[in-house]
Amino acid sequence: MRGILAVAALVFVAVAPVSPAFAAKLSKSEVEEVLNSQGYAVQDVGPNTLFVRVADYDIRIDIQGPDGDISYRTWLFEVDGDSVSYKVLNQFNNDVKFGRVYIDQDGDVTLQMDRNGAGGASLANIESDFDVFLMLISSFMDHLESQIVA
What is the pLDDT of residues 74-104, one digit of tens each? Predict the structure, then answer.
């Protein structure tokens, strides 16, 4: 029975119409265009890297790999990595499903969110992903403040 379902799923995927809004790999210029259209000033800083400044945060966007995987990353320089416990970081990471916060090799508190590009992603996904990432920054800062107050 599972074999029949698997074959049926493969046939469905093989003959399903492909929307032009989807691509196996979004280009860096497409990601840049989407974020520019949302009003963000985007800087092209390398073959696979963009930077976007939002409020006090520099957000690095890397588009890499054969599927166009996208990583959003920011460094929370106003947070002293030495004063944040791993318990606080782990609690946030356990509560959040779309990103993670960690202390990088330089001792900086870093927030990262990844999108697996396999199967394609739409330009609308980029818009919503960036909004989610901005919410993650705010959420972590709120989490951190509640831990200090508590």
Answer: 999 999 988 899 999 999 999 998 899 999 9
- Contact predicate 140/101, CB 8 Å: yes
Give the number of other Cβ atoms within 10 Å of residue 42's Cβ: 19
pTM of the model: 0.79
Three-state SS letters, the chain = CHHHHHHHHHHHHHHCCCCCCEECCCCHHHHHHHHHHCCCCEEEEECCEEEEEECCEEEEEEEECCCCEEEEEEECCCCCHHHCCHHHHHHHHHHCCCCEEEECCCCCEEEEEEECCCCCEEHHHHHHHHHHHHHHHHHHHHHHHHHHHC
Q: Which residues, listed in sequence order, are joined to residue 112 by a DSSP beta bridge?
A: 73, 100
Distance CA 33, CA 39 (A): 10
